[in-house]
Each structure stands twice: as C-alpha cells, then as structure tokens.
Design brief:
Length: 43
C-alpha cells in the first residue's frame, strides 16, 4: 500500500484512526448490501 504525505498511523492520531476504521467498516457493510440487492434482482 502506498503511503502519502498526509497519512497517519494509529499512534500519531487515535481519533483520525478510529474514524478511518469506522469508515472502512461502513464501506464493507455497504458493499455487502449492494451485492445482496444485485443477487435478488438477478433471481
């Protein structure tokens, strides 16, 4: 994974890291919902 100038680690900024984790979980959940809808449409 590429590292950017403005990237941060968990130790550097715990609040931003927590937001990153929350956004990641929400994105995974959203992706599963979209896949589920697409499966229903194809039936």
């Amino acid at each position: 994974m590429e590292t950017y100038k403005n990237s941060y680690t968990k130790d550097e900024d715990r609040l931003l890291w927590e937001l990153h984790e929350i956004r990641h979980r929400l994105q995974k959940k959203k992706k599963r919902q979209i896949i589920g809808r697409n499966k229903q449409r194809s039936i």
